[in-house]
């Protein structure tokens, strides 16, 4: 049941002092203290945020003493969040959220209140969005120090997190451009007279094994392995070459010298090391690196192939659901992923809302699944569009490997791998759209493929919605929150205000009605830092980074 | 939602559809059959639009085709439960279809149906205008969607062996007029939907050259093989006796190499063509 946020009796009073436990654990138990500087230096952006201005009415904020770790009650609560009184525990304060339509709690936190704050935004601010700039994938690497984005123009931009710097305390944790390169070019398939889009569908990082970083990026047809390496020294004093590169005349060389390494400005180079091509007839929708760090899978609409990272001229087909007669086709593969720990297990989801778990040890061609996950349909909510909205757009294993999460059009479901007949948790993302399905079908929005992600401790999940809203659900407390990625709420260190969609009846202040939602502003791609509470949200051509950080 | 390919021009039809879909959502004045018809129209329009794209999205096409099939199934079940000739466009189609199956289609039947249909529409003119709009839209657009899908199929047949072709029975000769027949809307829609994937087969197969039977290279030599009798007939595969299947395969070697039968037939044709080649080369 949605409950109102901005009740006049409780909003502006600063919270009384109350000592609370200090938690250093990432996830929703952690405590929001430190408001980050919002200086973005994206070369593409014309917008540079200013640091140093606190939002109005900001009292009792920890920012005055940035290094001090304060208790939850001392943090500033703005607007929509109710103030705490001394006695009651936060859990008793508000009713558990059933994940219903647009219901928003003040903070999706376990026991303590904390907020998400704006950190940075990358990308141009003008209204005219070039289609090539639209971000099509976002991914943190294993350590979280690097954040990669791919766009429709085939470019990959990698951001690196700044190291902590005592002289500039507010800039810790900022992501700045590390490398930009053109990963894929548009191609023309002459045999079929088709243009192959250069849009990057997915980026997946490889675990780091040496100083260089490796990632896989894919468009519809070709996967490429990129090596991103740093060069901060160069050799001087070659024997056969002059400093400017001209070859020296061998007869003039009278003495030999050993070249010495001299420091130079840091240069980040990206080079394609492997190109895995010509293995997919249909459009690649997923790639997933195996836990053995030697193989990976790529999935298109009807087939899944297994590759070895070293071998580019062959791949093994492990799943093929193409019927002998294409007329009989009723189901396509929509996403696939390897299990994070068991290198022989992977799952793939389908357009019919089912997930199949396969074990590669059972047979070479994994057409027969080991487990089949499907939730029986609820007859009361059946409509013409039931099948379309049941199509799974993303599947992600939890970090623990015990659960997996699937995203269909209206909900996110968490499945226990040991239980096939129904999910263990279901979260409604935007149930208020159920009554608008025909219009959404008409304008093709019903086919939008939203992704979902886990936080580092698997206690929370996040997914996107329309109107640049994105939703987060805390699995432990069952609280959820709707936030917006917009330039208006991107003031430096500003706390994000929870948003609410009004489903009917009287629209309250700060609520937005379903009919006012902008369906062109959709957040399809989000990523969560593997260990900390840092999230990256792609809103069309802008990348927003929000943080909640313990100092 | 940034589509590529065909730029859609806003037409009266589309304006109608936008208004209708919001009417659908607000659930006013639309009965269930009308809602169903609206959804069916939208599906067919989308399929038609996708066919015009250079590279339609397989995922979307499958979802839409499944929706169409589901609606078709529902309609068939409904009409099979209603022996009375209900005067609405859909019931009429389905009922007459069963008659069509057993006998050949004649022009008389065609005009008869048209008459009945016009009667049908007239009788409903007294009802709410939105329903009329829906019906008018549905008849015109279903047939236009279907005929355009079929046109594409014809085109596909010309350039390659049709994988979506269902063997036609000899006892049911088809004439070109049948293609545009409204009677068979249901079946044709279904076929149209299913044949969407036929195009994927053809355009997306990497083994295009390998699968291509030798016959097609010599198309211009022997055109009698490509008779108009074998335009995509809206027949359910289960209804065709197996004897005719073989015969069809003889004249239309399909891309499917799964049956050894077709391979043997291909070999026969190959030797024939070898012979022709020798003559041409003049050896």
From TrEMBL, chain A:
Single GO cellular component term: protein phosphatase type 2A complex
Region feature Disordered, mapped onto this chain: 1-30, 55-98
GO molecular function: protein phosphatase regulator activity
Comp. bias regions, Polar residues: 1-14
UniProt keyword terms in alphabetical order: Repeat, WD repeat
Family, similarity comment: Belongs to the phosphatase 2A regulatory subunit B family.
Record's protein name: Serine/threonine-protein phosphatase 2A 55 kDa regulatory subunit B
Organism: Alligator sinensis
Automatic annotation (TrEMBL), chain B:
One Gene Ontology cellular component: nucleus
Pfam families per UniProt: SERTA (PF06031)
InterPro entries the UniProt entry points to: E2F-SERTA_domain_protein, SERTA_dom
Domain SERTA: 32-79
Protein name according to UniProt: SERTA domain-containing protein 2-like isoform X2
Source organism (scientific name): Alligator sinensis
Gene of this entry: LOC102378806
